[in-house]
Design a protein that fits this description.
Layout lengths: L1 E12 L3 H10 L6 E6 L1 E3 L2 E3 L11 E8 L2 H16 L5 E11 L5
Antiparallel strand pairs: 1-5, 1-6, 2-5, 3-4
Length: about 100
Amino acid sequence: MLIRAEKVIIITEKIISSQIIDYLESMDIKAYTIYKDVSGQGNRDIRSISGGLSRYGENIRLEVIIKDDEKAVKVVEKIYAKYLHSKYAGIIYIEDVRIIKQNEE
């Protein structure tokens, strides 16, 4: 059976990934996926796989599936306000997804 959920996508600097993970775990979010060596270009210039702007380091993409819409919005708003608003480069957004419901064991 498919159920609706939210996928929170965070693309940001690797240097803050452990802080973001700590926050997610404090919200009782234990499952996530991290993609390393993310590259691209944005308003803070080009980021290559090797870090591009080497003084800033590498980027990561972190994805989390959250079944509760309100919780997903809270996570996005908190991470944006604490890290991405002015301090670190990155973007955070939500996609609607459908997942196969896993047995709650």
